[in-house]
Amino acid sequence: MKRNVVHFDLDTFFVSVARLGNSALEGKPVIIGGNSDRGVVASCSYEARRFGVHSAMPMKLARRLCPGAEYLQGDMDSYSYHSRVVTDIIREQVPVVEKASIDEFYLDLTGMDRFFGCSKFTAELKTRIIKESGLPISYALASNKLVSKVATEDAKPNGQMEIPFGAEKGYLAPLSIERMPGIGLKTSSLLRRMGVETIKLLSEIPEPMMHNLLGKSGIGLSRKANGRDESPVIPYSEQKSIGKEETFGNDTIDMQFLSGELVRLTEGVAFALRKQQRLCGCITVKLRYANFDTVSKQCVLPYTANDDVLLAKAKELFAKLYDRRMLLRLIGVKVSHLVGGYQQINLFEDTEENVRLYQAMDAIRAKYGVQAVSRAVGMHKARR
């Protein structure tokens, strides 16, 4: 069956949300990030990009390139709220939606062309999103997720594109290899040293040669370069939560021990989020007393995979829950409301040094296990 997949992407989402609350920012270069020069750019408007500013750039450099920009600190509470508004609008209209990140969505409209027309439906959905959320959004309609995502970049800002069935390879052919999802700096450098600069040239390399060059991922890139992508649109609520819990060998009331367990479990959950390239919008803490009474409490929070944010909320929930002064036999931490996305340790205030520190810690955990590096309070393994 011919597939119809739409990729929606909210344009300069953080900047657009800021402009909702302050119309004076319209048409001006806007840069969102940390206040200090050692912070990084989280998002910037198209007006700022003309000066060479881009996401993840050090704020110090951004200020030199665009000194006249409006510099704002981020507001994750507001971003999470507006993301949920758009999510609700889309889910009300479309049965199969994948929320790829806080501002990106894939829609599977396969079969709808027989009844309503995918082009007309998507255009009307875009109009409704803009009207009800006030946020600009771009989209591309194609036969698979790969082509729709690439084409959305060409549709921006606040535009729309449709790549007809059968035209996928021709559309991708003239684009540079860096436009292909899955090609990073190392792969790009390797291919360019071979003289491969466009997706057309990449598509002409035989699959066996790509396999020898890049292994299994090389075969995937070869197929994508030819416009083929069978990956399904996966409803973002399919995996509802990530959690860890610990049942103690002996019931305990030792607050130092319990605090360490809470830290250890929360760090493990946060690492699991980042490893799966996900963010969470809710955290739950569970306690089980010695008499087997089980209590839990949760709170909604801005989308995050940040250790510090999750630890602060976990400790706050634990303090509200543990009010009996009775022996505990189990403690658990769970995160839910999952969406795809990447998390810089503190998107708006953390320094480059801290970002690199946490990235290094995650690399150690990925290689040697989640307990290889941790906060000192969570490193006791004195199981009771």
UniProtKB/TrEMBL annotation:
Task: Supply the Gene3D superfamilies for this chain.
Answer: 3.30.70.270, 3.40.1170.60, 5' to 3' exonuclease, C-terminal subdomain (1.10.150.20), DNA polymerase, Y-family, little finger domain (3.30.1490.100)
The reactions it catalyses are: DNA(n) + a 2'-deoxyribonucleoside 5'-triphosphate = DNA(n+1) + diphosphate
Cofactor(s) demanded: Mg(2+)
Q: Which GO MF term does the entry hold, naming one? A: DNA-directed DNA polymerase activity
Q: Is this entry keyworded Ribosomal protein?
A: no
GO biological processes: DNA repair; DNA-templated DNA replication; error-prone translesion synthesis; SOS response
Top-level class of the enzyme under EC nomenclature: transferase
Identify the keywords attached in UniProt to this record, alphabetized.
Cytoplasm, DNA damage, DNA repair, DNA replication, DNA-binding, DNA-directed DNA polymerase, Magnesium, Metal-binding, Mutator protein, Nucleotidyltransferase, Transferase
Q: Where is the active site?
A: 104
Q: Which SUPFAM superfamilies match?
A: DNA/RNA polymerases (SSF56672), Lesion bypass DNA polymerase (Y-family), little finger domain (SSF100879)
- What is one term from the GO cellular component aspect held by the record? cytosol
- Protein residues bound to Mg(2+): 9, 103
**Family named by the database record:** Belongs to the DNA polymerase type-Y family.
* Quaternary structure and partners: Monomer.
Its protein name is: DNA polymerase IV
